[in-house]
Amino acid sequence: MELKTIDSVFVLSKLQTDEDGNYLTTLPAGKNYAFTVNRKGYLFYSENFTMTGNITDSPMVVNIALQPIEAGAVIILKNIFFNTKEFNLQPTSFAELDKVAALLNENPKLNIQISGYTDNVGKPADNLTLSVNRAKAVIAYLQQKGINPKRLTGKGFGESKPVASNNTEPGRTKNRRTELGVISN
Protein backbone atom coordinates (compact mmCIF):
# COMPACT_ATOMS: atom_id res chain seq x y z
CA MET A 1 0.00 0.00 0.00
CA GLU A 2 1.27 3.48 -0.88
CA LEU A 3 0.11 6.78 0.51
CA LYS A 4 0.91 10.13 -1.12
CA THR A 5 -0.51 13.60 -0.94
CA ILE A 6 -2.54 14.27 -4.11
CA ASP A 7 -0.25 17.10 -5.19
CA SER A 8 3.05 15.24 -4.70
CA VAL A 9 4.89 12.39 -6.39
CA PHE A 10 6.68 11.53 -3.15
CA VAL A 11 5.48 8.49 -1.22
CA LEU A 12 4.63 9.43 2.38
CA SER A 13 4.08 5.90 3.57
CA LYS A 14 4.53 2.41 2.18
CA LEU A 15 2.90 -0.37 4.17
CA GLN A 16 2.83 -4.13 3.99
CA THR A 17 -0.34 -5.80 5.25
CA ASP A 18 -0.28 -8.54 7.85
CA GLU A 19 -1.09 -12.17 6.95
CA ASP A 20 -4.82 -11.43 7.02
CA GLY A 21 -4.51 -8.34 4.82
CA ASN A 22 -4.94 -5.82 7.66
CA TYR A 23 -3.08 -2.55 7.91
CA LEU A 24 -3.23 0.63 9.98
CA THR A 25 -2.15 4.12 9.03
CA THR A 26 -2.91 7.65 10.11
CA LEU A 27 -3.75 10.54 7.80
CA PRO A 28 -2.80 13.93 9.20
CA ALA A 29 -5.47 16.60 8.74
CA GLY A 30 -5.17 19.44 6.26
CA LYS A 31 -4.26 17.56 3.08
CA ASN A 32 -5.76 15.41 0.33
CA TYR A 33 -4.30 11.92 -0.04
CA ALA A 34 -3.95 9.38 -2.84
CA PHE A 35 -4.04 5.79 -1.62
CA THR A 36 -2.99 2.85 -3.83
CA VAL A 37 -2.93 -0.89 -3.17
CA ASN A 38 -0.88 -3.19 -5.43
CA ARG A 39 -0.51 -6.94 -5.69
CA LYS A 40 1.13 -8.92 -8.48
CA GLY A 41 -1.45 -10.53 -10.77
CA TYR A 42 -4.20 -8.07 -9.76
CA LEU A 43 -5.42 -4.68 -10.90
CA PHE A 44 -4.38 -2.00 -8.46
CA TYR A 45 -6.92 -0.21 -6.27
CA SER A 46 -6.87 3.55 -5.84
CA GLU A 47 -8.78 5.94 -3.64
CA ASN A 48 -8.48 9.52 -2.52
CA PHE A 49 -9.20 10.92 0.89
CA THR A 50 -9.89 14.56 1.69
CA MET A 51 -8.70 15.39 5.17
CA THR A 52 -9.59 19.09 5.13
CA GLY A 53 -12.54 20.88 6.69
CA ASN A 54 -14.59 19.21 9.41
CA ILE A 55 -13.00 15.86 10.10
CA THR A 56 -13.29 13.52 13.05
CA ASP A 57 -10.78 11.39 14.87
CA SER A 58 -12.88 8.34 14.12
CA PRO A 59 -11.15 5.41 12.46
CA MET A 60 -12.18 4.53 8.91
CA VAL A 61 -12.43 0.95 7.81
CA VAL A 62 -11.74 0.40 4.12
CA ASN A 63 -12.29 -3.13 2.82
CA ILE A 64 -10.55 -3.63 -0.49
CA ALA A 65 -11.24 -6.50 -2.85
CA LEU A 66 -8.58 -6.59 -5.57
CA GLN A 67 -9.59 -7.91 -8.98
CA PRO A 68 -7.48 -10.44 -10.86
CA ILE A 69 -6.13 -9.20 -14.19
CA GLU A 70 -8.58 -10.95 -16.51
CA ALA A 71 -10.87 -10.00 -19.38
CA GLY A 72 -13.89 -8.05 -18.17
CA ALA A 73 -12.30 -6.71 -14.97
CA VAL A 74 -12.91 -2.96 -14.48
CA ILE A 75 -11.56 -0.45 -11.98
CA ILE A 76 -12.32 3.23 -11.49
CA LEU A 77 -9.19 5.36 -11.61
CA LYS A 78 -10.07 7.59 -8.67
CA ASN A 79 -7.04 9.85 -8.89
CA ILE A 80 -7.53 11.13 -12.44
CA PHE A 81 -8.53 14.79 -12.42
CA PHE A 82 -9.78 17.27 -15.02
CA ASN A 83 -11.04 20.83 -14.63
CA THR A 84 -14.77 21.32 -15.21
CA LYS A 85 -15.68 21.15 -18.93
CA GLU A 86 -12.03 20.47 -19.86
CA PHE A 87 -10.12 17.43 -21.02
CA ASN A 88 -6.54 18.42 -20.18
CA LEU A 89 -5.18 16.19 -17.45
CA GLN A 90 -4.33 17.93 -14.22
CA PRO A 91 -0.77 17.21 -13.06
CA THR A 92 -2.21 15.55 -9.95
CA SER A 93 -3.31 12.73 -12.30
CA PHE A 94 0.20 11.77 -13.38
CA ALA A 95 1.04 9.53 -10.40
CA GLU A 96 -2.06 7.40 -11.02
CA LEU A 97 -1.39 7.25 -14.75
CA ASP A 98 2.18 6.19 -14.05
CA LYS A 99 0.69 3.28 -12.07
CA VAL A 100 -1.36 2.33 -15.14
CA ALA A 101 1.78 2.49 -17.31
CA ALA A 102 3.65 0.31 -14.79
CA LEU A 103 0.77 -2.20 -14.79
CA LEU A 104 0.94 -2.39 -18.58
CA ASN A 105 4.74 -2.74 -18.55
CA GLU A 106 4.55 -5.54 -15.96
CA ASN A 107 1.89 -7.34 -18.03
CA PRO A 108 3.04 -7.11 -21.67
CA LYS A 109 0.03 -9.02 -23.05
CA LEU A 110 -2.48 -6.78 -21.25
CA ASN A 111 -4.82 -4.76 -23.51
CA ILE A 112 -7.10 -2.21 -21.91
CA GLN A 113 -9.96 0.17 -22.60
CA ILE A 114 -10.03 3.59 -21.00
CA SER A 115 -13.62 4.78 -20.59
CA GLY A 116 -14.64 8.34 -19.85
CA TYR A 117 -17.92 9.35 -18.17
CA THR A 118 -19.57 12.61 -17.17
CA ASP A 119 -22.47 13.74 -15.02
CA ASN A 120 -25.67 15.08 -16.65
CA VAL A 121 -24.88 18.80 -16.31
CA GLY A 122 -24.88 20.36 -19.76
CA LYS A 123 -25.97 19.08 -23.14
CA PRO A 124 -25.75 15.30 -23.71
CA ALA A 125 -23.83 15.77 -26.98
CA ASP A 126 -21.29 18.05 -25.27
CA ASN A 127 -20.89 15.56 -22.42
CA LEU A 128 -20.30 12.72 -24.88
CA THR A 129 -17.61 14.73 -26.69
CA LEU A 130 -16.01 15.67 -23.35
CA SER A 131 -15.90 12.04 -22.20
CA VAL A 132 -14.35 10.92 -25.50
CA ASN A 133 -11.68 13.62 -25.27
CA ARG A 134 -10.89 12.74 -21.66
CA ALA A 135 -10.36 9.08 -22.59
CA LYS A 136 -8.12 10.23 -25.46
CA ALA A 137 -6.10 12.41 -23.07
CA VAL A 138 -5.42 9.41 -20.82
CA ILE A 139 -4.39 7.27 -23.80
CA ALA A 140 -2.10 10.03 -25.11
CA TYR A 141 -0.37 10.19 -21.71
CA LEU A 142 0.16 6.41 -21.68
CA GLN A 143 1.56 6.53 -25.21
CA GLN A 144 4.00 9.24 -24.09
CA LYS A 145 5.13 6.77 -21.43
CA GLY A 146 6.00 4.26 -24.16
CA ILE A 147 2.87 2.10 -24.14
CA ASN A 148 2.07 0.66 -27.59
CA PRO A 149 -1.14 2.30 -28.88
CA LYS A 150 -2.34 -1.10 -30.16
CA ARG A 151 -2.81 -2.11 -26.50
CA LEU A 152 -5.04 0.88 -25.74
CA THR A 153 -8.64 1.57 -26.67
CA GLY A 154 -10.57 4.66 -25.62
CA LYS A 155 -14.29 5.22 -25.44
CA GLY A 156 -16.49 7.98 -24.10
CA PHE A 157 -19.94 7.32 -22.69
CA GLY A 158 -20.92 10.83 -21.63
CA GLU A 159 -23.74 10.79 -19.10
CA SER A 160 -25.25 7.51 -20.37
CA LYS A 161 -24.04 5.15 -17.62
CA PRO A 162 -24.36 6.82 -14.22
CA VAL A 163 -23.25 4.89 -11.12
CA ALA A 164 -25.07 7.27 -8.75
CA SER A 165 -27.91 9.78 -8.79
CA ASN A 166 -27.25 13.01 -10.67
CA ASN A 167 -29.61 14.81 -8.25
CA THR A 168 -26.85 15.53 -5.72
CA GLU A 169 -23.27 16.85 -5.98
CA PRO A 170 -21.79 13.68 -4.40
CA GLY A 171 -23.68 11.61 -6.97
CA ARG A 172 -22.53 13.79 -9.87
CA THR A 173 -18.95 13.55 -8.57
CA LYS A 174 -19.13 9.73 -8.71
CA ASN A 175 -20.52 9.85 -12.23
CA ARG A 176 -17.58 11.96 -13.46
CA ARG A 177 -15.07 9.15 -13.69
CA THR A 178 -12.41 7.39 -15.72
CA GLU A 179 -12.40 3.61 -15.82
CA LEU A 180 -9.81 1.06 -16.86
CA GLY A 181 -11.24 -2.15 -18.30
CA VAL A 182 -9.30 -5.28 -19.21
CA ILE A 183 -9.92 -6.37 -22.80
CA SER A 184 -7.44 -9.27 -22.77
CA ASN A 185 -4.39 -10.52 -20.94
Please render the helix and strand layout as text:
Blueprint: E1 2-5, E2 11-14, E3 32-37, E4 45-50, E5 74-76, H1 94-106, E6 111-116, H2 124-144, E7 152-156, H3 169-175, E8 178-184
Parallel strand pairs: 6-7
Antiparallel strand pairs: 1-2, 1-3, 3-4, 5-8, 6-8
Mean pLDDT: 88
Q: Remind me, CATH topology?
A: 60s Ribosomal Protein L30, Chain: A
What is the H-and-E element order?
EEEEEHEHEHE
Please name the CATH architecture.
2-Layer Sandwich
Helix content: 10-25%
User: Mind telling me the C-alpha Rg?
Assistant: 17 Å
Give the helix tally.
Answer: 3
* Main pleated-sheet profile: 4 strands, antiparallel
Identify the overall geometry.
Answer: globular
Derived structural class: alpha+beta
Count of spatially separate domains: 1
